[in-house]
Amino acid sequence: MPESSYDILIVGGGIYGCGIAQSAAASGYRTGLIEQHTLASGTSSQSTKLIHGGLRYLEQGNLKLVYEALAERERLLRIAPAMVSREWFYIPIYRDSKRPAWMVRTGLLLYWLLSGGRSRFKSVAEPEWANVLPGLNRDNMSALLAYEDAATDDAALTRAVAASATSFGCDIREHAELASARYENSRWQTTLASGEQLTSRLLINAAGAWINRVQELLQPAPAGIAVRLVQGTHLLLPRKSPGYIYTESRDGRVMFFRPWQDQMLVGTTETLFEGDPGDVSPTAQEIAAILATYNHYFPTLACSESDIITTYCGLRVLPNEKSGPFSASRETVICCDNNESPAYIAVYGGKLTTYRQEAEKVVKLIGKTIPPLRKTDTSRIALTPASKP
Ligand SMILES: Cc1cc2nc3c(=O)[nH]c(=O)nc-3n(C[C@H](O)[C@H](O)[C@H](O)COP(=O)(O)OP(=O)(O)OC[C@H]3O[C@@H](n4cnc5c(N)ncnc54)[C@H](O)[C@@H]3O)c2cc1C
Q: What is the dihedral of CA 90, 95, 97, 102, to 10 degrees?
């Protein structure tokens, strides 16, 4: 076969595209991946960088997602110990908190059960509060709870998965933008913006927030699903974070404070976004809302806009259901053109934490069209940090 002819061509070099590339290449498929910019330049470098079950999804009653994500967390802690670390997260409860201590304790108990006992939790005694979280507002505080979860560097994890894919023979191309693709004679003829032509038996759309834009470039156009894009902003502040803190924003939503590059990362927001995903940027209201929350919790270390080191913003892909963005499902939706023998597979939404198991589901679907050379279990493949481009 010529160099640019693959069994599978993946569009998108985020965690999902790289995860599918790793699993497919390890299964023996001749795999290519194209990324319009650089690996992890989309949402996979703009997240809160947590590998977690998602305590807040318990409120939505999504026990399956939490259970599966917690199991994935344990696998990633095992296979990527240099990039995923177990941490204590603190939850301060105030007399006016939307979620009272009994409710949070119940949630932590359920979280512990769903994790098979791998998310211990505890109450921190009042005399310890000032030592554990120096600078935190203790006015009206009624309890301090703590539980175990995990944190990562999302872009580093994505690059490590890509490096693993390359080690199994995957051809990864950065600065390679899909311009169009046509399905003829049982093969995809893909044209890059550079004019280069690639061919493949299957095309996998893992373009994140660009998923429906990529779909519009395909002929014949596959059926897709409508999605909403919801932007989430983070601020990096010049304060040493006393630890990982999970709390409520001023309007009652979840907000994380976490150490990042020796400073404090605070986020996130949920703002509906319409337009070109490449143009997403933090709004003035989001920045003001995050700063107000930070200043409420750390009044003696208060920051103003001029203190902000940097801001960043990522896009969630949410199925277009009626619920608000905050309560919309974070589950991954995998669609294909034909369940018996797909030529096109699209991966919508999901979490960083669950990329590996979703990638394995995609590769199982690929197996209906082209049987794999060998069976692979990526939960047994160690991931090591890859160098930055
Ligand atoms: C604010 C925020 C916080 C989050 N925090 C967490 C968290 O703490 N933990 C967690 O588990 N999950 C979290 N998530 C979810 C997680 O970040 C995403 O599920 C994940 O990063 C999505 O990865 P992806 O590969 O689907 O998309 P992306 O990372 O966006 O990758 C898609 C890629 O496709 C490329 N592309 C697009 N069009 C083309 C084209 N025509 N040709 C070639 N390439 C193209 C893009 O450049 C991009 O790199 C968060 C999400 C957001 C928005």
A: 70
Q: 10 CA to middle of ligand 1, Å?
A: 14
Task: Give CB contacts under 8 A, 24+ apart, made by 136-143.
Answer: 136/92, 136/242, 136/245, 136/297, 136/298, 137/296, 137/297, 137/298, 137/299, 140/94, 140/95, 140/96, 141/92, 141/93, 141/94, 142/93, 142/94, 142/95, 142/97, 142/101, 143/92, 143/93, 143/101
Q: Pull the structure tokens for residue 99.
A: 């979620």
Cβ of 352 below 6 Å from ligand 1 = yes
Which SS3 state, helix, strand or coil, does residue 73 take? helix
Ligand 1 atom index nearest CA of 230: 53
Domains of the chain: 5-44+155-226+330-372 (3.50.50.60), 51-151 (no CATH), 227-319 (3.30.9.10)
The widest CA-to-CA distance across the chain, in whole angstroms, is: 72
- Asked whether 205 lines ligand 1 (CB < 6 A), one says no
Q: If you measure from the C-alpha of residue 42 to the centroid of ligand 1, how many angstroms do you get, rounded to a whole number? A: 5
Pairing verdict, β 31-34 and 171-173: parallel
Query: What's the sign of the alpha-carbon dihedral 104, 109, 112, 113?
Result: negative
**Is 147 a pocket residue for ligand 1 (Cβ < 6 Å)?**
no
> Other C-beta atoms within 10 Å of 54: how many?
21
Confirm if 138 and 129 have CB atoms less than 8 A apart: yes
Q: Tell me, what's the pLDDT at 330? A: 66
CB of 209 within 6 A of ligand 1: the answer is yes
| pLDDT given at position 343 | 97
In tens, the pLDDT along 270-301 reads 999 999 999 999 999 999 999 999 999 999 99
**Whole-structure pTM value:** 0.96
Atom of ligand 1 nearest to the CA of 38: 49
| Residue located nearest, by CA, to atom 52 of ligand 1 | 47
Beta bridge partners of 223: none
Tokens, residue 148? 């175990």
Task: Report how far residue 22's alpha carbon sits from residue 367's, in angstroms, rounded to the nearest whole number.
Answer: 15
Strands 197-205, 344-348: pairing is: parallel
